[in-house]
Amino acid sequence: MISPDVANSELTARGKKLSAIIQEHEDGYYEIDLTGKFIYFNRAMEQISGYTANELMTMSSSDLVAPENLATAQQMFQDALKKGTTAQFVEISFQKKSGQAAFVKMTAAPIRDTQGESTGFHGFVRDITAQHISDEQQKDAQAQLDVIHTSLEEAVAEANVKAVEAEIANIELNQIFNTSLDGMWILDLERNVIRVNDTMIRILELPKEEIEGRKCYDILAGHCCLNQECTVKQIKRKKVPILADIELPVRGQSAPFSLTATPFYGIESDLVGVLENFRDITERKQAEETLQQANDELKRLATIDGLTNIANRRTLDERLENEWRRITREKGDLSLIICDVDFFKKYNDAYGHQEGDECLKSVAQALEAAVRRPADFVARYGGEEFAAILPNTDLEGAACVAENIRRTVMDLEIEHQSSETAAVVTLSLGVATVQPKVGHIPEILLTTADQALYRAKEAGRNRVVSNNVIFPEDNN
Predict the structure, then answer these.
(1) I need a labelling partner for 372 at 20 to 30 A (CA). Which of 23, 104, 127, 302 fits?
(2) Sign of the CA dihedral with 104 first, then 47, 266, and 273 last
C-alpha cells in the first residue's frame, strides 16, 4: 500500500508537470467556475488581456469579452456543457485593459470533479489580432511575428491539485492537450511518442494507435530533425528549448510549421522526455511573402521611369557615382552621352501629349537597341532628355555609339512636320569622356556632356558633338 506521503509527492510532481506545460504554452490558458469567475490562468492570458494576475483574479470572463460578442461566448460555454466535450472554437474580440480590442480564437471544455460533475470550464485563447490589422499596419505586424518564439521560463506555480487523485490529473492533462489549437506530442528519451493530442492527430491524418508507441522519425520521416540533428538529442545535451521553422506534410502538401521543443521533467526533476509543439504558420508565411513581393516591387518602381520603363534619373546618378569610383581605381576611361529630342515641345503642340509620350517610349527603346554592351547603361535624364553611361570607352568610341543612336532614332521615321531640322524625329547628342581622378566628382562629366549637347543644338541640331573633360588644374 502506498503511503500518504508518497502519494502526495506524486500528486505534487504531476501537478508541477501539468502547470509547467500550461505556463510554457504560447496561447493563453484559463480556468473559470460556472459563474465565469477566473480561478486559474497562465502568463500568456495576462499578456493577451493586459491585466495583471491580481486584477484577473477579481474579474469574470464576461469582463474581457466585448459586449457584441457576449452572446457568442455564452453559447460556446453552453455547447461545451451540453456536449460534455471541447466546443468548436469561436472567434471573438477581447477588451484589453488599455482599451484596445484584441481579436482572439477561443476554446472551452467542462471541468469535472471526481464524481463527474461539471464545476467550471477551461480552454485556450489565441491572439489573432495581427490577422485583422490594416494593410498599412501589416509591416509592423510582421515584425511582431518574427519574435513570437520567446524563451520558455521554468514552471512558476504549483497547481492546487494535492487533494485531487492522480488519475484526475492525468485526465486534465489530456483535456489540456486536446483543447490546444496547436499540434502537441511528448517523446521519451528514446524518441518514442508517449502522448499525442487531437490537433496533432488531425495534422498527421493517422489514428492515435498508429502514432503513440512509434518513433517520431518513422512518423515524420526526418521532419523533426534540425540540421540533421534530432531535437531530443539536442535537448539531452543542452537542456534548453529549441525553436525552428519546419515543413510538415498536410493533406498531401508541404505546409510550414513553427516547432517549439522543450525539456519534459519527471517526478525527481530529471529529464524524461521532450514536449514538442507544432503551430501552423501558413498565414504568417503568406503574409511575409506578400510583404516581400510588395517591397521588391517598390524597389523596382523606385529605379524605373514610369513612362519609358528604362532607368530613371536617380538610378542614373547612383550608377554614375559607382562607375566613377570603380574606374578611378582602374585608371580607365568613362564616357557619358546626353541626348535631347529636337523640337519636342513643337511635337507635343502639333500631335498631342499622348503621341508625345509614345514618341519618348520609342526613343527609349531605340537607345537601348543602339547601346549593346552589357556594362553600358541607358536612362531617362529628364523630360525629353536621355543619357547613356559607357564605362571603359574612349571619346572616339563614345562618339561612334552616339552617332549610332542618332541614326537609329532617325530610322524610326517618326513624323515630325513641325521640326526645323528634318521631317522626322531627330536627336542632338553631347558626348564627354574623362579619366576619373581622386578628389573629383562625376558632376564634371555631366557638365561637360551638357555643354557638348548645347553646342550640338547651336550648330543646327540632329548631330553629335563630343568633348574631353578638362579638370581645373589642367588649365594651369
Answers:
(1) 302
(2) positive
Contact 313, 380 (CB under 8 A): yes
Q: What is the pLDDT of residue 144?
A: 52
Instruction: For domain 304-475, give its CATH number from 2.60.120.260, 3.30.70.270, 3.40.50.300, 3.40.50.720.
Output: 3.30.70.270
Please tell me if the domain spanning 1-138+161-177 has the same topology as the one spanning 304-475.
no
For the stretch 18-67, pLDDT in tens is 777 787 788 899 999 999 999 999 888 899 889 998 999 999 988 999 88
Tell which wins on pLDDT, 7 or 111: 111
Radius of gyration in angstroms for the set of CA atoms belonging to the chain, rounded to a whole number? 36
Domain boundaries, the chain: 1-138+161-177, 182-303, 304-475
Tens-digit pLDDT profile for residues 144-166? 544 433 333 333 334 343 434 44
CATH topology for 182-303? Beta-Lactamase (3.30.450)
At 14 the three-state DSSP class reads helix
Residue for grid cell 489573432:
128
Residues 186, 205 contacting (CB under 8 angstroms):
no
Residue 198's Cβ-count burial label (10 Å; 0-12, 13-18, 19+) is: middle
Read off the pTM: 0.46
What cell numbers appear for 255 in the block? Answer: 505546409
Residue 91 pLDDT > 50: yes
Residue identified by cell 495534422 is 203
Where are any strands of DSSP class E within 297-384? 334-341, 377-382
Tell me the pLDDT tens digit for each residue of 355-408: 999 999 999 999 999 998 889 999 999 899 999 999 999 999 999 999 999 999
Residues 6+ away with beta carbon under 8 Å from 210: none
> Which CATH superfamily, name and number, covers 1-138+161-177?
PAS domain (3.30.450.20)
